[in-house]
Amino acid sequence: MSKAQLAANGYSNSGERIKDFRTQEYDVIIGVTRELQKLRDDANSNFNDIVKVVHKNERLWITIGAQVAADANALPQNLRASLLYMAKFVSHHSNKVLKKDGDLAILVDLNVSVLRGLKGA
Q: What predicted TM-score, i.e. pTM, was given to this entire model?
């Protein structure tokens, strides 16, 4: 296949590109979620590792919050509001985890619920 054909195919089906974007979102969220699960399940987790992964998850949710808050976001208003609330909750609960007053399982459960939504379950 020539470069021109490859380029044309890249623009031929916008539905596939949207699906690819959703798949990318899923992959990023599941990656962070697996890291959180691993630490949650390990009774001997290193606190420095917990800090790193909780921070990574919080950065993910800050990004999600910023995207859904943008006027140009095409998601339904109620979904945008829910995701923005979740982003704020993640920030609050992450602080609790870092003060050793919160549970990683809550962050895992929240991420899993979003993953289910992305998969349409």
A: 0.81
